[in-house]
């Protein structure tokens, strides 16, 4: 798996970033807007840099670079709001090269002719708006079965004020002189593939724009003071920006994913092209709005650049029309079999395949579950701790599939994080809970690193044999996600300790053998410095476990500790060093976790219902609106997967990706809940039922999704982490 760019791509991006910072500066942009939204000197400079030759095939005299390379340039074009139809000219040049129009190609590549693309068939849309329509000398278009080059003279062009002053223009293409470049199905498909690539490059340009809008807003929030504080400390400012930082990051890698899908012939690629543009278009608009609002009244003035991003974000995505139609298009491609011609994207260096080891171990795990899970066990399965089954747990350990990431001498396979991730996905596909495995693995990691020989013998060995499971005693009734505010006391008692207090949400305590306890050992120091970690047997005298039932059909617990005695050898790490000890577990918890598998399973269940439900005399799944909503949910799942894989890759390859884990968890859980609500609506009233099958699953998924925004820290906590780590905003918590 590789989310990184190679050296040539890094150089390409850096070269264009430097060039555009100098030649597409905000003063230059503002000046261009006064003269129709076009900077001739910038255009010529881009031509000299080889921009318009980058996607031209080598056999036609071009550079033969890939779509991903062009996408990196598009991101920089968006970041700087560079004027002119650059993306359209890049793709027009490629089409001219593919169709053998060398005479026209030369002028486009050297910048002497400004080229653009018609986004609709001229037969049906003679009069249409074009990117760069106010400056274009040449427009490539489809005209029925012909691909034509339309010559545009100065008298044909009509400069017109528009929302973003970005040089769009309306031309009556059917009345202008046209040269047929090629005819027939192959030519039409080549042109259609170019338009699909236009969607991808435009998506990435909008992504670059959105990223810069968020950056500008975050920088301002670090400078601007109100009520004696930097406004970035206000969560009403920092949390929305954190949301957009996640959505921007996800949108970029979603578009990259689509390029990779096209290169390997993935059947999801065609629909995902549409979804990538839809996602990045609406994200850019909303990021531009939030960015402007961060500036307050100053954002409304023309003195600050943020308004330019706001307007360009809106205008750029609308040249094709209402972006909501892209959802319908994706829906038709997924559910109605609509075909789409896709481009040859050229060389693709990124790779989201987990590798042969992961594939092999996932296949073995799948075979284990297919062989082991009887109909009775499948009925026992549940997404929560309630699905834990001691016998299956032990069999997994015997097969060395319980903790495959551990070395062979500890009962594992020395599996890579990628392989372990693939195995976890198989667990989810079979609906087999990983709660006991996950929490127990955290405890095992801490015992292995900090535990006494006694703990390793009496607790760790049974854990590794699959005979013992552990729960977590972090949260308390008065602290919730603020685990470092723990008040459960551990006081010295002879050669050991006495534990008194209460822990809330100790899920699995009714089934587990041990609980790991974060206890207050020093009340006179900062709250995060006076904590110590212990292991307690849950059958010890003085421990009471009481059930707490949730509306998700999930049991958790409140546990009471009254004078519980524990020897000092069952302490983990140093006294008052609990935070350091806990870090081993937190690292495991934030390595790309998410709920995309559960989210995807919910969508599949909703699709089943949509085929059953009749709407206006036909199955609901044939309705365009329903198709679009299902497609939207699929986009959310794809982005969740990419953010999760990015966090996993970053941790494994030791890349500096600030708050990558919290980003994955935040997005995954929030979109699971959002789509859980929407798909419950879409399939109502059948989805209200708890009858066995798809209706119950959609119903339960809606309820389950609420908890995912709270598990392992609430979404609000993760937003603060993202704001501080990824955006550099000041700390918003005491």
TrEMBL record:
Positions of the Acyl-CoA dehydrogenase/oxidase C-terminal domain: 195-327, 598-726
Gene3D superfamilies, per the entry: Acyl-CoA dehydrogenase/oxidase, N-terminal domain, Butyryl-CoA Dehydrogenase, subunit A, domain 2, Butyryl-CoA Dehydrogenase, subunit A, domain 3
Alphabetic keyword roster: FAD, Flavoprotein, Oxidoreductase
Domain Acyl-CoA dehydrogenase/oxidase N-terminal residue range list: 7-96, 356-467
Cofactor: FAD
Chain ranges of the Acyl-CoA oxidase/dehydrogenase middle domain: 472-549
Pfam families attached to this UniProt entry: Acyl-CoA_dh_1, Acyl-CoA_dh_M, Acyl-CoA_dh_N
Highest taxon, organism lineage: Bacteria
Xref: PANTHER family: ACYL-COA DEHYDROGENASE, ACYL-COA DEHYDROGENASE FADE34
Family: Belongs to the acyl-CoA dehydrogenase family.
Descriptive protein name: Acyl-CoA dehydrogenase
């Amino acid at each position: 798996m590789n989310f990184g760019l190679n050296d040539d791509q890094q150089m390409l991006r850096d070269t264009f970033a430097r060039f555009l910072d100098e030649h597409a500066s905000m003063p230059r942009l503002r000046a261009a807007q006064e003269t129709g939204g076009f900077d001739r000197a910038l255009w010529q400079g881009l031509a000299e840099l080889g921009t318009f030759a980058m996607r031209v095939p080598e056999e036609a005299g071009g550079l033969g670079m890939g779509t991903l390379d062009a996408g990196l340039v598009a991101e920089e074009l968006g970041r700087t709001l560079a004027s002119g139809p650059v993306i359209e000219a890049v793709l027009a040049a490629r089409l001219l090269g593919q169709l053998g129009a060398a005479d026209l190609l030369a002028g486009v590549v050297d910048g002497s002719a400004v080229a653009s693309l018609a986004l609709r068939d001229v037969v049906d849309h003679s009069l249409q708006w074009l990117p760069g329509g106010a400056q274009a000398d040449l427009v490539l278009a489809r005209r029925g079965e012909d691909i034509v080059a339309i010559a545009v003279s100065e008298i044909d062009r009509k400069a017109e004020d528009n929302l973003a002053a970005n040089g769009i223009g309306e031309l009556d293409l059917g009345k202008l002189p046209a040269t047929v470049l090629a005819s027939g199905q192959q030519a039409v498909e080549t042109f259609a593939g170019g338009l699909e690539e236009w969607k991808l490059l435009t998506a990435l340009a909008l992504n670059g724009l959105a990223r810069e809008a968020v950056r500008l807003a975050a920088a301002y929030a670090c400078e601007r003071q109100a009520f004696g504080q930097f406004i970035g400390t206000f969560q009403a400012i920092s949390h929305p920006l954190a949301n957009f930082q996640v959505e921007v990051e996800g949108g970029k890698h979603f578009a990259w994913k689509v390029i990779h899908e096209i290169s390997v012939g993935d059947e999801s690629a065609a629909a995902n092209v549409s979804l990538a543009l839809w996602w990045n278009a609406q994200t850019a608009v909303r990021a531009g709005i939030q960015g402007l609002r961060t500036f307050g009244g100053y954002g409304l003035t023309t003195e600050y650049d943020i308004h330019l991003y706001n307007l360009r974000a809106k205008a750029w995505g609308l040249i094709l029309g209402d972006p909501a139609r892209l959802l319908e298009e994706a829906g038709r491609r997924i559910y109605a079999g609509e075909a789409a011609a896709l481009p040859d994207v050229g060389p693709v260096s990124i790779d989201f395949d987990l590798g042969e080891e992961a594939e092999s171990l996932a296949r073995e795990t799948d075979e284990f579950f297919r062989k082991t899970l009887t109909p009775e066990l499948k009925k026992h399965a549940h997404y929560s701790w309630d699905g834990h089954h001691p016998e299956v747990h032990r069999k997994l350990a015997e097969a060395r599939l319980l903790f495959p990431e551990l070395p062979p001498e500890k009962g594992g396979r020395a599996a890579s994080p990628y392989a372990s991730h693939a195995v976890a996905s198989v667990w989810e596909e079979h609906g087999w809970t990983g709660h006991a495995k996950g929490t127990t693995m955290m405890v095992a990691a801490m015992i292995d690193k900090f535990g006494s020989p006694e703990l390793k013998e009496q607790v760790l060995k049974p854990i590794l044999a699959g005979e013992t499971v552990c729960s977590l005693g972090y949260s308390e009734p008065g602290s919730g996600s603020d685990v470092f505010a723990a008040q459960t006391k551990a006081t010295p008692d002879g050669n050991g300790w006495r534990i008194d207090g209460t822990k809330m949400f100790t899920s699995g305590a009714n089934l587990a053998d041990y609980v790991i306890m974060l206890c207050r050992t020093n009340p006179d120091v900062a709250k995060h410095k006076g904590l110590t970690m212990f292991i307690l047997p849950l059958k010890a005298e003085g421990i009471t476990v009481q059930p707490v039932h949730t509306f998700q059909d999930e049991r958790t617990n409140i546990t009471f500790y009254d004078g519980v005695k524990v020897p000092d050898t069952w302490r983990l790490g140093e006294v008052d060093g609990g935070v350091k000890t806990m870090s081993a577990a937190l690292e495991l918890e934030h390595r790309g976790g998410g709920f995309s598998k559960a989210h995807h399973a919910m969508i599949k269940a909703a699709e089943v219902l949509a085929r059953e439900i009749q709407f206006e005399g036909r199955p609901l799944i044939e309705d365009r609106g329903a198709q679009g909503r299902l497609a939207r949910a699929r986009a959310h799942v794809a982005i969740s997967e990419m953010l999760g894989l990015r966090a996993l890759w970053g941790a494994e390859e030791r890349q500096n990706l600030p708050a990558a884990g919290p980003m994955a968890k935040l997005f995954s859980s929030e979109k699971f809940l959002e789509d859980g609500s929407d798909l419950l609506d879409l399939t109502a009233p059948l989805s209200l039922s708890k009858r066995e099958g798809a209706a119950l699953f959609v119903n339960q998924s809606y309820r389950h999704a609420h908890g995912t925004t709270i598990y392992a820290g609430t979404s609000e906590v993760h937003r603060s982490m993202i704001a501080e780590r990824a955006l550099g905003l000041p700390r918003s918590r005491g």
